[in-house]
Specification:
The protein is α+β, with helices and mostly antiparallel strands. It contains nine helices and 30 strands. It is 17% helix and 36% strand. This is Lipoprotein.
Length: 609
C-alpha cells in the first residue's frame, strides 16, 4: 500500500483503503467516518461541476490518506521475510546492461483462446515486472501491428470494435492483470463453423519499446545512530528523520535537476528496504509519501477551494503557482515506510536521474508456439541472447529441508460464520517448496474434531453430542464445515487435529560433464527423461558458472501420444547451465496438527433455536 496524493501523482491505491481500519483504532475510525460524512454532505452545496470535481479529488484523497495512516499504524506485529528488490540490478555491471537484458530477452507466445475466433498473444519479459514498485526504470511499449501468415498486416487498435467486420488486434480482455497481452480477433459469422487452422495465423508482432536508465544507483545503509543525520554522496543526500520498531521516516534530495528525458515523467527514484537482526529483508507493509508539511499544505488548498463559488483560470493558475512554490521551498522527497518486522538496518537506494540514457528499439518479434504438452519428437529451440538469474530460487529451496516444527508454526486458522448452515474452519500455510514436492499419494489418517460449549478454570466442559451430519472434515483441503442449525447448544470451542503433509527430499548436485543417465544439457535447455525421473517425484534447478540459479523461461512435456505417458521434458533457461541440482521426494509423512480454536460467533438471528 503506497499512498500519494493525486496532485503529485496520477493514482491512489483504493482497494486496501476502502476496507477500513482494524478494531484497534475504533475511536479514530469513528471520527474519520464522521469527517467523511460531513465532507460528502458539503459537496452537495457546490454547483460548479469543475470545482466540485477538484474538491472531491483533493478532499477524498486526504481522507483516504488518513485512513491509510490509521491502517498502517495498526498493523498486527509479525515478521515476514521477502526478497531484495535490487537483486536483479546487482547481477549486471551497469544500469544500461539491465536495460539491454530487458529489451533483448523479450519474446511473444502464441496462446490459443477459448474461442475459435480468438488468438491470444503474450509478450514474455525476462525480468519480473511484479516486484514491489515494478520494473526499476521508466519504460513503455507501443504495439503497432501484427503480421499474419498470408502477409497481411493488421494495425493495433486500443479497443476491440463490435462494428469492425475485419480481423482486429487489440488489448486482451481475458487478462486484465497484464496490459501488454493482446488478442487477434477474427470476424464471427453466425451459423458458420470455422476451422481455426484455415484462418491466417499471426507470425510476428511489431512495436516500439523505450527504457530510460539513470546515471547511477547509490545505496545508504542507516541504523538508529543515524537518526537526525544527513548522509551525502556527491549530489545525493539522505536524512533519517525517525527509525521506529517497524517503520522509518526519511527525506531524500538530489541537488541536481532531473534530466530533460524524465523531467515530465512520474518517476519514483527511491527504494527503501529494511533488514532485521538476522540480516534478512523484511516485507514492506506500505508507505505514506506525503510529509506532515505536505498534508498541511493540501489541507490549506482544500480549505481555499471550499470557499470558492466557481472554478476559474485564475484559481487554477493560483493553485499551480502555490504548488510550485511549495515544492521549491521543500525540495526533499519524503517517505514513511512500514515493514512486517523489527528494523535493524535501513537500506535506502536512490536512482540518480540527474542524467539519463534513453534506449528505443523498433520491435519485430516472431510469435512462437510452445504448448505445455506436445507429441513432437524434436526439441524446438528458444535460445535468447540474455542471462537472467532466479533470485527467489535460493530461498524457495529452503523448503526442501522444512521441519515438522516449521510446518506447524506456519499454520494460520481462518473462520467463516456468515452462513450458519455452512460455518467453516480453514487451516492454511504459506506455500513452500515442500508443498511442490508432496505428489498426489496422501494418507491423511483420522482427523477427529470435538465441539465444546465453554472452558472454565482451564478445563473444557463436556463435549456437545452431535449427529454425524452436523459437521464434516475434509483433511485434504484442511477444512472443517459445520451446521450450527444441528447443534443443540452453541459451540464455543473446537478441539481436534488436522493432518499436514511433509516430504522428505533428497538433494544431489551434478556438473554438466557428469550428469547421470536421463539428464542432458543442450545449449540453454535441460532435457529430462520422465521414465527415469517422474514429474510427481522430481524437480530440477540449474546454475551457470557464476554459481547463481538461472531463471527458467518455460518447460514443455514431450509425450508418446495425446493420452500416452511422458517421454521427456525440456526446460528452457535464460543462460547456459553448467550445474544441475536434483530434488527427489523419498518419503511422505503425515503430521498431525493439534488445535484448540475459539469459535467466532455466528449471526444469532440466522441460527435455528
Amino acid at each position: 500500500m503506497d499512498v500519494r496524493l493525486p496532485w503529485t501523482t496520477a493514482s491512489i491505491c483504493l482497494a486496501l483503503l476502502l476496507g477500513g481500519c482494524s478494531p484497534g483504532d475504533e475511536k479514530h475510525v469513528a471520527s474519520l467516518d464522521e469527517k467523511t460524512a460531513t465532507f460528502e454532505q458539503s459537496l452537495d452545496a457546490i454547483s460548479d461541476p469543475k470545482l466540485k470535481d477538484a474538491v472531491t479529488e483533493l478532499g477524498g484523497s486526504l481522507l483516504l490518506l488518513e485512513r491509510a495512516r490509521l491502517k498502517l499504524d495498526d498493523i498486527t506485529p509479525h515478521t515476514e521475510y521477502g526478497e531484495d528488490a535490487l537483486a536483479v540490478l546487482k547481477h549486471y555491471p551497469a544500469p544500461q546492461a539491465l536495460v539491454d537484458t530487458f529489451i533483448n530477452g523479450l519474446f511473444v507466445l502464441h496462446k490459443d483462446a477459448s474461442s475459435d475466433y480468438l488468438t491470444d498473444l503474450q509478450p514474455v519479459f525476462p525480468l519480473n515486472l511484479d516486484i514491489p514498485g515494478g520494473f526499476l526504470f521508466p519504460h513503455g511499449i507501443e504495439w503497432r501491428s501484427v503480421t499474419l501468415s498470408n502477409k497481411r498486416v493488421i494495425a493495433y487498435q486500443p479497443e476491440w470494435s463490435e462494428t469492425d467486420p475485419g480481423i482486429q488486434l487489440s488489448p486482451s480482455s481475458s487478462n486484465v492483470t497484464n496490459p501488454d497481452d493482446l488478442t487477434v480477433t477474427y470476424p464471427f459469422i453466425d451459423g458458420l463453423n470455422v476451422d481455426k487452422k484455415t484462418l491466417p495465423q499471426p507470425v510476428s508482432l511489431q512495436g516500439q519499446i523505450e527504457v530510460i536508465a539513470p546515471r547511477r544507483l547509490y545505496s545508504f545503509d542507516l541504523t538508529q545512530k543515524d537518526v537526525g543525520q544527513t548522509r551525502t554522496n556527491d549530489n545525493l543526500s539522505v536524512k533519517l528523520l525517525k527509525l521506529a520498531k517497524n517503520y522509518a521516516e526519511v527525506e531524500v534530495s538530489n541537488s541536481l535537476p532531473l534530466a530533460a528525458e524524465v523531467a515530465d515523467s512520474r518517476i519514483n527514484p527511491l527504494i527503501v528496504q529494511a533488514r532485521d537482526a538476522t540480516g534478512q529483508y523484511l516485507v514492506r507493509a506500505g508507505s505514506i509519501n506525503e510529509s506532515p508539511e505536505q498534508v498541511a499544505f493540501y489541507q490549506k488548498q482544500l480549505a481555499q477551494l471550499q470557499k470558492q463559488k466557481s472554478w476559474s483560470d485564475t484559481l487554477e493558475k493560483q493553485l499551480s503557482d502555490d504548488q510550485q512554490a511549495f515544492e521549491k521551498e521543500h525540495p526533499r522527497r519524503y517517505n514513511k515506510v512500514y515493514f512486517h518486522g523489527p528494523i535493524e538496518t535501513l537500506e535506502i537506494s536512490v536512482l540518480d536521474f540527474s542524467s539519463a540514457t534513453v534506449t528505443r528499439k523498433d520491435l519485430d518479434l516472431p510469435i512462437r508456439t510452445f504448448n505445455p504438452r506436445t507429441t513432437a519428437k524434436v526439441v524446438q529451440p528458444l535460445d535468447l541472447p540474455v542471462v537472467v538469474y532466479d533470485d527467489q530460487a535460493r530461498n524457495w529451496l529452503k523448503g526442501a529441508s522444512l521441519t515438522e516444527e516449521q510446518l506447524k508454526a506456519g499454520v494460520r486458522i481462518h473462520q467463516s460464520v456468515e452462513e450458519p448452515s455452512a460455518a467453516r474452519i480453514e487451516f492454511s500455510h504459506r506455500r513452500t517448496f515442500n508443498d511442490e514436492m508432496l505428489g498426489d499419494e496422501f494418507n491423511p489418517g483420522v482427523s477427529p474434531v470435538t465441539f465444546f460449549t465453554e472452558k472454565r478454570g482451564g478445563k473444557l466442559d463436556e463435549p456437545i453430542e452431535l449427529p454425524p451430519e452436523a459437521y464434516q472434515v475434509d483433511p485434504l483441503r484442511a477444512t472443517i464445515t459445520y451446521d450450527l442449525n444441528l447443534f443443540p447448544e452453541t459451540p464455543e470451542i473446537a478441539v481436534g487435529s488436522m493432518p499436514l503433509f511433509l516430504a522428505t527430499v533428497a538433494r544431489q548436485s551434478y556438473d554438466a560433464q557428469s550428469l547421470p543417465k536421463g539428464l542432458k544439457i543442450n545449449d540453454n535447455t535441460l532435457v529430462v527423461d520422465r521414465n527415469m525421473f517422474p514429474a510427481n517425484e522430481w524437480r530440477f534447478f540449474v546454475k551457470d558458472d557464476s554459481g547463481h540459479y538461472l531463471k527458467q523461461i518455460l518447460s514443455v512435456s514431450h509425450d508418446a501420444s495425446t493420452e500416452g505417458p511422458a517421454l521427456f521434458a525440456v526446460h528452457y533457461f535464460y543462460g547456459r547451465p553448467t550445474q544441475v541440482e536434483s530434488y527427489q521426494r523419498t518419503d511422505l509423512a503425515t503430521v498431525q496438527y493439534g488445535f484448540e480454536v475459539k469459535l467466532d460467533k455466528a449471526p444469532t438471528d440466522d441460527v435455528a433455536p
